[in-house]
Amino acid sequence: RKEVEQDPGPFNVPEGATVAFNCTYSNSASQSFFWYRQDCRKEPKLLMSVYSSGNEDGRFTAQLNRASQYISLLIRDSKLSDSATYLCVVGGYTGKLIFGQGTTLQVKP
Amino acid sequence: NAGVTQTPKFQVLKTGQSMTLQCAQDMNHNSMYWYRQDPGMGLRLIYYSASEGTTDKGEVPNGYNVSRLNKREFSLRLESAAPSQTSVYFCASSEPRDEQYFGPGTRLTVT
Questions:
Q1: Which residues of B touch A94 (CB under 8 A)?
Q2: DSSP string for residues in A42-106
Q3: Is the pLDDT of residue A94 over 80?
Q4: CA angle A43-A49-A53, nearest 5°?
Q5: What is the pLDDT of residue A13?
Q6: Residue B39: CB partners within 8 Å, gap ≥ 6?
Q7: Nearest to B97 among A31, A42, A101 (CB)
Q8: A42–B105 CB contact, under 8 Å
Q9: pLDDT digits (tens, 9 = 90+) for A8-41
Q10: Number of other CB atoms surrounding residue B75 within 10 Å
């Protein structure tokens, strides 16, 4: 079983749609959680950290469920510019981060 | 602030050749990392350095060596390149257990 699992997609949605991605992780001792965004052939960039209480940044909402060991990302009012690959990332006490394979989102006009 | 820089951006090697990928960060981070990314495989950790003077193997260290030259610089060396090492290589830096910041990547092809 992979340490961090994501549905690779692709998710094809129209502009303005709401889309949700889920991710599961296997190590219950994981301590840090992030969503990264990666555009084609570019470096990953931090989208947002994920906290136990949930957090929101504009159209993006991230939630963490420690009991079920999953993380979610909700994107509201999708824009064409949201088209990218979204990486679920989990870290442990060593500081190393484990990256999921990524979920590809295509927003269509 | 340049963040994390990597050189070169592109490289083509013949099987058996050697090369060193350079990485530098100006964020005063203690930890630095080397990853490779292959289609359908996601990012895989090659080596990391939790702090200056220390290095540790990641998930896929075979065929690579690293040097943490100082706090700013972390290099990755391929001693004898193989076609299986064709990949995109990313360097990253962070404070321990914090989010990582990535360089723009090196696209390496081994023929």
A1: 50
A2: S--EEEEE--TT-EEETTEEEEEETTTTEEEEEE-S--GGG-EEEEEEEE-TTS-EEE---EEEE
A3: no
A4: 160
A5: 97
A6: none
A7: A31
A8: yes
A9: 889 999 999 999 999 999 999 898 999 999 998 8
A10: 17
